[in-house]
DNA sequence: TCAGCTTCACCCATCAATGG
DNA sequence: CCATTGATGGGTGAAGCTGA
């Protein structure tokens, strides 16, 4: 079958015969790809997708620390798969890859060590409507909540906290953790609530706080309250959930994702996925010890009823340990990929560009059944949270997507 | 034991861009 | 107009390490 010349119904060209040629010849933003060899690795530098914020499907817009733009998986899914093919992300985070795959009619697989990932991703692979959500919110007894943790009053007005406790109890009955029999509407409501727990506007349950992708400690919140002379305002939890639901669904939802599967475990051990059953892997691992997922997620763990101490998120401090981790994950991807399938493995520059993680990934792939096609660098300006500590955008931290491209032999 | 050094743990609390 | 979004790193002091 000549995949290179076929076009699927969505209009995306599929399964290019030569990904490297397409990247080399790419000029979608009026700029030619800069190709250079550094220490035997071929780099392709260009702007490959838009740098503008919020240009992908609205259903992606849930808060999570460290997530790539949906345009990244879209770029590879469009070129390397066709409708019905299987796409996997072993480090799915908020689930950008599986959700984008489902939106494009692919079978979506995903995994993450953090149990929050399934809670944030699964509801967006189901078919839920605003009407379903509004109706369910009507059935909740909002006055029935009992405050368990008074320290959370640093974030919430007592009435808000009682409402959140009522919602937690309702969720525990309708969509218990670890159960496969969850009510998809309750599952959706929990996903939305997890993104509204803290923030800096009236669309969040808390008083003014840091953005919800990095919840501050109780102590810090008390200091913020003092400095701003605020006490947390009363919030209409149901109204906030309804409003965010409307926003998330404004572009529609994923057409009931067929055969999707989400796992909670190590990226290097996914025995639930059969040998040779995957067409494309698009992923991005944690970058060394840069992002502290456990600390960021304490408030969400409370809401969801997850014991944060039981979430064993590995931190790889040294480059050697990190490279070993990547090698074991790539070994597992080699097992589940079909011959001719691809891996797009994204990293960023860390430690002010002194550590080039893509070189470590390149080395980790050595000896595995992969053809190493090169490193694609998506180079563009964007703004980020580091501004709040006076770190200028574009100067420090991660400012580009660097994607190691592999083809399964 | 201790000086001298390195590493670790923790704290901090924006603003530009975009879309409704 | 206003709500919402976004892959930190430098400063600090404690703790750890090394060699005499």
Description:
The structure is a single chain. The chain has 409 residues and is an alpha/beta fold. It is 31% helix and 15% strand. The chain contains 13 helices and 9 strands. The chain has helices at 19-24, 71-80, 96-103, 116-121, 130-138, 158-174, 184-194, 218-228, 237-248, 293-296, 298-304, 319-336, 357-364; strands at 34-38, 41-46, 86-89, 107-112, 261-264, 278-283, 337-347, 370-379, 400-408. A 9-stranded mixed beta sheet has the order 1-2-8-9-7-6-3-4-5, with helices on both faces. Helix 5 packs across helix 7 (184-194) and helix 6 runs antiparallel to helix 7 (184-194). The two termini are 19 Å apart. Residues 1-14 have low confidence and may be disordered. It binds a DNA duplex (20 and 20 nucleotides) through helix 8.
Q: Please indicate the percent range of residues in DSSP E strands (runs of 2 or more).
A: 5-15%
Task: Assign an overall shape.
Answer: globular
Radius of gyration, in Å, reads 22 Å
Q: Report the average pLDDT across residues.
A: 80
- Helix count from the secondary structure assignment: 13
Largest sheet: 9 strands, mixed
Order of helices and strands: HEEHEHEHHHHHHEEHHHEHEE
Strand sequence of the main sheet, in spatial order? Answer: 1-2-8-9-7-6-3-4-5
The secondary structure category is alpha/beta
Stretches where pLDDT is under 50 for at least 5 consecutive residues are 1-14
Question: Gap between N and C termini, in Å?
Answer: 19 Å
Summary keywords:
single chain; 409 residues; alpha/beta; nine-stranded mixed beta sheet; 9 strands; 15% strand; globular; DNA-binding
